[in-house]
Each structure stands twice: as structure tokens, then as C-alpha cells.
């Protein structure tokens, strides 16, 4: 019997597996010629990462060596590019001559996607796809220096870890909000980032590359936000696309990949098969090895005349970076009708999330402990009915019927040097030592260490330490948790954000064992505030964690419209501003114009989509946001003081304006209202404000903690000072201390009732060093927040205030 | 089903929402995760609050007016005997697609 001629283009893992099946099942059926553009045969491409990191060598990962090909009489043409497929003549034309075929297998794999930016061709910019790329990276790493990896997916992170292992300074740039967003959710992405950062890799998310810079060779990467990163090596690992050029030119059907039937034959030519990353089947592309091996089996059976059919199955992902233990499988993101089961163990850095649809497990993401991954993957693939084990499913096969996460684990995991009591500078180690020495209740601990003996906000944490150390021997009075997402109180969370430290919402949810995916409407605004107050430079405000008023910088009204209140510094205005307000009211059909209690003008009933435009108009007259909607500085109410009043003792209007200009734009736990009266007749009603200053002949009386809302309360005297400058300093320090230590949604009077006026006085008035620190901290934060949000939104986000689409006409057609 | 392209996924903030005007009233499109969308009637059945202005958490949204919480998968209000209508929506190649027939059918009824 004459042998048929089989030509294979591409010696990758998929075609290698085809050849194994084929030569095992029918060793004499074909004369085989194997082309490969790379000057070598089939090797385990998945293991390039361990080669890069130095854990394996090239010899370790060769799958088929010369002897293997020789034993099977396969003619190899390695290092030779195929120029063309001539379907009419049924031959493949290589650089060194043509080879006729009876059957042809296209296995051209994929090519790395190159982002189209300036400088992408510079020497020193490489992709990560084959052994040559790996060797280029190893050579570059030998010189040391800085590497920038563009792309925080599987391949990019493996490249980053390998380069770091070889001694380079590595930065990963990722376009999306968290790493590996296609395989991981935010929580697992956060843990991965943390692990990578712990090994010295810098990770930048939402980082969009604008250009690669350099003369003669790569010198740096410029981001869209104008950040410049120095680089001696740039690795582009943003994705791959099927390599289909030969097929396309031979006029074989190509969509995104070469379109194949379930038998892996091309659509119009049953003698031509395709396999691997170059194919598209039923709308799917393939990048992981498991489905490729399934395809290989189908191809081999088709070639020997025993057709089979390829079916798409779920695949699981694991990252091959030593020490980063993650697993994801199935579909965990898209589609309604699904339920989540979330488990977090902050102490051990573990996160698990199962996605259930009906009575089936459909997706699974795990980080830190992936031991049960294959069991979950089995449940997904087999579509097992999990209804009966739903309650205990997340604990895995070995653990049916266990308890939930331990709320004490976050505290137990703190290092001894973590500060628990900020007032007295007491670390965890000091407290545990005191417990070991016999202090067995809160009173004894306070006496011995002073922990929680001042403002008291860390009491919950100190009690938890007692509980960790003494177990059942200590019964803590239970503090009210923030919401149903956590067992921690506001005070605990604030303290832990500082001492652990935690600098993102993902970090808080994970490290403190949140039981929900991403919080709720109660905890999200609180955590967002705590993070931006404690880490002004590290944390970026999250508008989606803000109540609508603060997100849209206007107050929502009962009919869904908004109100607009421009700032009138100290309650002063002028004809030009009033004209602009009148014009705006007419132009945007504002139904109600009202004078507020805070000495300014409220335009009520403005439509959402009009907001950016009315703001732009008001901006032109010099008017800015009055923050009438914010948990922040509202107004500084003043009287006319010495300017006109015959009783005025000081320039109360001027002081009011200067205070407002210092404090405006800052976020606070709740709203803050100030007033300055020019004499004790108190026309500005300063004695019921959060901070109220009454001017007298000898200077300024500063009162704090007034209220005139649900509760009615007169201010208490914080200090009397001789100069205006000191009055401003003390006010600023007071507001900053309130920002740093109050619980979210406590007005100053409520906070004062908890910490005591004396405690505040000691820090703001008496301790000049602490006063300076508070003022500096406030100024640092204000360097970012003292600006008009209206101008910014009108200029850059106007679209987001309007509907995404108007289909009213479309549906009528 | 016939799908209408209503815009880019990037135009809807993560854990946020956008409004779409239709002949049957306003529909809110919620983005609960990188590639997870839900669509529901924008008006809260309690006092008509705009749900697209609510805080989105998990697969839920909280009405900005009086804190009613809705499960976006079913449209049901938590702890209240009320629900909002939900609509089929999906993402394809970074575009957001809304089911036209679901909107049209309601308008004919």
C-alpha cells in the first residue's frame, strides 16, 4: 500500500500531540514532512516561564528531540518559513522548495499582539512567545537595569516574575483595574498584586501606554497620564492573535482564526486540517493547552479515517509563578441568575469565590489555597447537582459542615509592632506582653499600658486581643459592626487601616474578612472616606462608593432632579455673580430659586444632563461648587463685622472668607458648618455651629461641637486666642483631628461626646507639635482636594451626566 | 432576540450605572463587575427614585432616595413586596447590547 503524504506546518504543542497519536495508531500510514519557522522541534512552551526564571533549562522542556523524529521517519524542515500553500497543485512551498501533500495540517499557532504605539520597533522591545524571546530576555536581564512589562495577564506576569528573579527592577503596566481580569475577580487580583509587590515587582493598574521612547534603543515608557518610566527592556505581553496569514492567502475561511468543523477540517477543503491556537471553532479561540490536546486527538483520528468530534469544554487557569497560588475555572463573571459564595481568611491570605447558577457550580476563583481547585473544576465540568452540599461547598471535599471565617483572624495576624492605640503609641506586642503578665480585662490593660485609655476608639481592638490571648476566658462586650458585610466596628476598621496598613478597598475587604463581594451602600462610603483621609496620596477617591449627591456634585431631589448651590465665600456676593445666577436660572428653566440658611442661593430642579452645562456657565462668572451636597465643608456664615457694623470688634467677614478658602473641598466624616460673628450679639449664630468663632475686643473665642438639627446644642469653648492667624490654625487642626479619628457620619458634636473635649484640647490647643502635624496633614490632603469639582466634571465628564443612549425613536419604528 | 448596540462597556463605570431612554421608560444598565451587566427599570417602585443613581454593590443596587435594596438578578426588593422589571442585556466585544424585542413587546402591551 502506498503511503499518503502529510505535510504539517508548525511544530508546536498541538501538532506535536497530533504526530504522537498518529504515529502510535498508524505508524505506516503517512510520509510526514514537518515545517517549523523556529529552528527547532516541539518543546513545552508552557514551561518557558520556569526557563526564564532559571528554575528549568532548555533541555528540560524539549518534548521531541532529533531521535524522536528520526525514529518515526518524519522529515523535518526546521528554521524554514513556508511561503505559500498551493491548493490547486496540492503542495506546500517552503523557502527551500515545494512538498506535495495529500493531507495538510496547519498548526501555525499564534502571534503576539503588538500595541500600535510609537517606538514599538526599537531594539530592546520584545514579545514573549518562544524560546528566542526567552533567551533575549535572559540576555537582557544579565545586564541588570529596569524592565517594563506591558500587560498584566498570565504571560506578562510570568515574564515579570522571571525577570525579577534574574535581578531586574520590574514594573508591570496593566490597562484594566486589576491584574488578570479575565481569569480573576477584583479580590483575587488584589491578593495577586500584593504577592507580586511583596517580591519587589511594581504594579500599575489603569496604566495606558502612550509611547515607547528611546534613541537607537529603548530608554523608557511614557504613559497616557504623562508618567515617565525608565526602561532598559520592554516586554510586550498584551495578548495573542491567531496566526492565519498562510491560510488567508490560500483562501481558506478565516474569521478571527481559521474556521474549522468539529472534525477540525477547514470549511471548504476536507484535505486541510487545522489545529491549535490558529483555529476558531464555533466562535471560540483557544490559548490554553487542554483543549488543544483534545483537538489533536480529533485531528489524528480524522487522518486515519476514524472521525471523532471536538467539543469545547471549560478550562482552568493556574499561574506558574512560584509562591503565587491561584486558580480559576469556569465562568465567574458574566450573566444574570447567579449567586456567589465568598470565603476569606485574611490571616492566611486566602480568598475563594464560587459562582452558582441554579443547583450547579459554574465558576470558581481561588487564591492562596488552591488545593480543592480540581475538585471544584470537576463539579463544574460534570455539572454536578450541588444543592445538598451548598451550605458547606466552599470548604471543599474534606470539610462538610464547618464554621465560618474567624472574625478575630485579622487582629491575630497583626505583627507585634503594629500600632493599636494611636493616642498613646501602644503596639500590639506591648499589649500582648501585658496580657501574658496577667492583665486579663480592659481596665487592667488600660492601667498597665494606657492602650485605649485616651480617645477610646481602639477599645474594640484591644478587646479582640484579649479574646485572642485568653480565648473563652474573656468575654468582650460586642461592638456594633459597620454593617452586615463585616463583624468589625467603624473604630476597629479605622485603626486597622492605619496600622496594617490598608490602602485600597480591596485590601480592606480581603484583610478584614468582608463577607460580601464588594461591600454595600452602608460600608462603601465609610471605607472610601477612611482611606482617602488616612492615605491622601496613595488612595484615589472612588466615586462609585459615594452617595449620588457626592458623585454628581449636586443634591438629588424627590423627583430625581438636582439642586445647584454655588459657593458664596463668607456669604458675600456681587452683581456679576447674581446676574450669572439669574441667567442660568432662566436658561435651564430652574423652577425654584431659594435663599438658603447658609447665606447663599439654591437653584432647585435642574435635570442631571444639564448639570455640567449650568456649572460651566456659572464657572464663567467665577462661581464654583458650594459643596452643599457633601460630607465636607459646607458654609462659613458671617456677619458684616467691622466693615459696616457699629458694634463689630474684628473683621468677621474677612476671617470667614479666609476660613472658607482654607477648608473648602475637603472631605470630612459628616458635613461641617462654620460661622464667625463679629461681636457677642452673634448675628451669624456661631454658637450652634460645628465650629463657631465669636470675635471680641481681645481676640477670638473658638467654640466647637454645636448642633441645630436633630439635636440642639450650644458650642463648647475650645480656646480663646489673640490673633486671627491662630484662630485659623486651631480651626484647621480641629477639622483634621476630626477627619482622622471620627467615625463616618458622626457630626463633630457626636465625636466630641465620645473622645471628650479635653482630649481634643490637648492635641489641638496645648500640644503645638501635634497642632503643626495636623495642619501639615490637612494641607497635604488639600493640595489634591482644594479645587472645584464642577469645573473638572464639566470639562471631562459631561457625557456621564446624560443618558447612555436614547432608544425612544428606535423602538417606535 | 434582536440586540441593539447601546454603547461601549467603557462608558459604564465599574460598580456604576448609566441610563437608557426607551419608549417604555428609562432603563438603567448596571455594571456590577468588569464584564457583568444587568438591566432594570430605572424607577424605584417606592417613590420613583432613579436606581441608576444608586450605589451598586455585589449584584444589588440601593435606591438613592430611601435606601430600598434591589437584587438585580431577579428585580426583587429586599424585605419589601415589590420588584422592578429586568431586561436581557449582554456584552460582546466591548459593546453593550440590549434586547430590542423585550422593550418592544412591553410597549405593544
Structural overview:
The complex is a heterodimer of chains A (813) and B (109). Chain A has 813 residues and is of the alpha/beta class. Chain A folds into six domains: 4-110 and 242-303, FAD/NAD(P)-binding domain (3-Layer(bba) Sandwich); 125-238, FAD/NAD(P)-binding domain (3-Layer(bba) Sandwich); 325-395, FAD/NAD-linked reductase, C-terminal dimerisation domain (Enolase-like, domain 1, 2-Layer Sandwich), CATH 3.30.390.30; 409-543, no CATH class; 549-629, Alpha-Beta Complex (Sulfite Reductase Hemoprotein, domain 2); 633-789, Sulfite Reductase Hemoprotein, domain 1, CATH 3.30.413.10. In chain A, 32% of the residues lie in helices and 21% in strands. Chain A has 27 helices and 39 strands. Chain A starts with a strand and ends with a helix. The model of chain A is unreliable at 400-405 (pLDDT under 50). Chain B has 109 residues and is mostly beta strands. Classes of the chains: A alpha/beta (813), B mainly beta (109). Chains A and B meet through strand 39 and helix 27 of A and strand 1, strand 2, strand 3, strand 5 and helix 1 of B.
What are the SSEs and their pairings?
The complex is a heterodimer of chains A (813) and B (109).
Chain A: E1 4-9, H1 13-25, E2 30-36, H2 48-53, H3 66-71, E3 74-78, E4 82-86, E5 91-94, E6 97-100, E7 103-106, E8 110-112, E9 125-127, H4 131-142, E10 146-150, H5 154-165, E11 169-173, H6 186-198, E12 202-204, E13 209-213, E14 220-223, E15 228-230, E16 233-236, E17 240-242, H7 245-249, E18 258-259, E19 272-274, E20 279-280, H8 289-303, E21 316-318, E22 326-330, E23 338-345, E24 350-357, E25 360-367, H9 373-381, H10 409-412, E26 419-421, E27 426-427, H11 428-436, H12 442-449, H13 459-470, H14 490-499, H15 505-511, H16 523-534, H17 548-551, E28 555-556, E29 562-564, H18 575-587, E30 592-595, E31 601-606, H19 611-620, E32 633-638, H20 641-644, H21 652-663, E33 672-677, E34 691-696, E35 699-704, E36 707-708, E37 712-713, E38 716-721, H22 724-741, H23 748-755, H24 757-766, H25 768-785, H26 789-796, E39 805-806, H27 808-812
Parallel strand pairs in A: 1-2, 1-7, 2-3, 7-19, 9-16, 10-11, 10-16, 11-12, 18-20, 32-33, 33-34
Antiparallel strand pairs in A: 4-5, 5-6, 8-17, 13-14, 14-15, 21-22, 22-25, 23-24, 24-25, 26-27, 28-29, 29-31, 30-31, 34-35, 35-38, 36-37
Chain B: E1 3-8, E2 16-22, E3 25-33, E4 36-41, E5 55-57, E6 60-62, E7 69-71, E8 86-87, E9 89-92, E10 95-99, H1 100-108
Antiparallel strand pairs in B: 1-10, 2-3, 3-4, 4-8, 5-6, 6-7, 9-10
